[in-house]
């Protein structure tokens, strides 16, 4: 008997596949009072492995371990971003505060592994190519142990991929095929062999998917197994977002899957309203609150470990800095006087007003920039608008007040802060004026070096709204000559002449926050231990530090826009337009390059699904019975899960203006490989065993051959130049073949 749905007859064409029949138990309609309703049931029964399957899995596990760990000791030098993450691990071991754009979990794990291996922070990760082995042959850092962590993560990713496919309704052979593709995908192998973030991150994402699939297949809602896998899903989600912000895309994917589940639950008339509310509350706690708790906990440990002030703490606010050991504001004078030597900090970016003995290419005036670290080039002496001798300037204390007119004399290069009506080198709009340093000690300034101090009361402390005080007073500097306001923003000057520092201009009608400044350092020859009063800086608590750090992480991440020889854009990744050179030494190279048949296979697989949905839409007719086979329903539902995962981890990259590389595609790549396996299951079920076997073996053969052929640039093995040149299949594959003979 076929049920009626909104006046239509829903016809199901069964397929003679045990897995398909088992799967379709999840797609049932029952007769309701007014209409049939969708009846929700688990997708797949518990998986039981036969003895032969267990042997196959054991052999496959051994093969995976060999693939991930082969030649892991090579090179015994710093490779690519190991220079960053090794340095961060060293900072954790030394408790020295630093700022990075990524959440801290994986970096802390590397530090813990290094510490357990005997590393005490004495090896400095200075640059790519530095040797991990000392002159006497001793290991300066347990780099093999630290590399073993992402390799183990890579092994677990492969094994979990098998079980995810099994619990997604795939037969053993197809699940093994999908896991094997994950095992031999070149970029996944390469990325899991070095001290990098991506392999642990991907493991946590895959754990999230595995736990969610298991949770979705639990037969008893609110039972022990159901709660257990929902808990693991939330924990894995928290670990993902605590490793890299890519985990936010995983949250988006899981959100769509959860809403989809709840939608069908609401329509299931056999589920009481009270249970629907319980479903919502359980998911809200385990999938929202629990990951937030984990995320906050990871940062709490981060702040607890990094408690020492260091060079990296120069980028944080004074209140943040006051929370770090080794920071001493007890000698910082509150009142600012004419004759004071000060550092002036930009409120919006947190960087210092700075100048150095380099010029702009057009005007040849001395550059004025924003610089993120404490430096002698940040120091300016506050002078009055009338030129005074040193004896007159430094011989009295005259506190700076709202509306006072000042001149700023750059101590290191002996010139005055100046604004002209010429256009800046980068922001060349008519309303922007160039800021520079001109003159020398004997130069007699004019109105073009005069700035009016305007205290912005709503941003200033209560006792710092009339007189300028260190840290507490926030002010603008209004240029009297051109009637503009000193302005800083995150536009970077070119590295070749501006060293990547931020641009400073003077603008007529600025965005308020980009025109705000405060004073952080303040000295004067007549200041002493008792006069004037010292600044009292209240340290930030956990949430204050948490919020400030995240603002800086976001802004710094968005500011990583500089070009790089091996950077690429998202549209390049699915077709594997180019790779990334990781390491070159002595006739060997390591070059991050994906497995072309797998990458292109994902594009084909996504295309098939799009065509599948378009055909469904074309065939759909009102008041006619749709015909759905078991295999088609399974393919439609399961492919949707992994297609959304691929899309959610890929599409946001198009919105990013920051520097991107091929390895940013890795989470989407994994979802794409799982999608290949799901399509293969559909081909096997729909077209028969022979066609399915041929389809699978074709993909596997091409992928396996590609992995074997390009293994030398995965593992850093010997190769020859002619073979390398012949292996540049696409125009942008810039493998450094000159490294080979």
Automatic annotation (TrEMBL):
For this UniProt entry, which residues form the secretion signal? none
Please give an example of a GO cellular component term from this record. Answer: endoplasmic reticulum membrane
Compartments in which it is found: Endoplasmic reticulum membrane
Pathway(s) per entry = Protein modification; protein glycosylation
The annotated topology with respect to the bilayer is: Multi-pass membrane protein
- Broad class of the protein's primary localization: endoplasmic reticulum
Q: Which residues cross the membrane?
A: 144-165, 171-188, 195-213, 225-241, 248-266, 286-306, 598-619, 639-656, 668-685, 691-711
- Its EC top class is transferase
Example GO molecular function: dolichyl-phosphate-mannose-protein mannosyltransferase activity
As its record notes, the protein acts as a catalyst of:
a di-trans,poly-cis-dolichyl beta-D-mannosyl phosphate + L-seryl-[protein] = 3-O-(alpha-D-mannosyl)-L-seryl-[protein] + a di-trans,poly-cis-dolichyl phosphate + H(+); a di-trans,poly-cis-dolichyl beta-D-mannosyl phosphate + L-threonyl-[protein] = 3-O-(alpha-D-mannosyl)-L-threonyl-[protein] + a di-trans,poly-cis-dolichyl phosphate + H(+)
Provide the MIR domain boundaries. 333-385, 397-456, 466-522
SMART domains cross-referenced by the UniProt entry: MIR (SM00472)
EC number(s)?
Answer: 2.4.1.109
InterPro entries per record: ArnT-like_N (IPR003342), MIR_dom_sf (IPR036300), MIR_motif (IPR016093), PMT-like (IPR027005), PMT_4TMC (IPR032421)
Family as reported in the entry's similarity comment:
Belongs to the glycosyltransferase 39 family.
Q: What does this protein do?
A: Transfers mannose from Dol-P-mannose to Ser or Thr residues on proteins.
Query: Protein name, please?
Result: Dolichyl-phosphate-mannose--protein mannosyltransferase
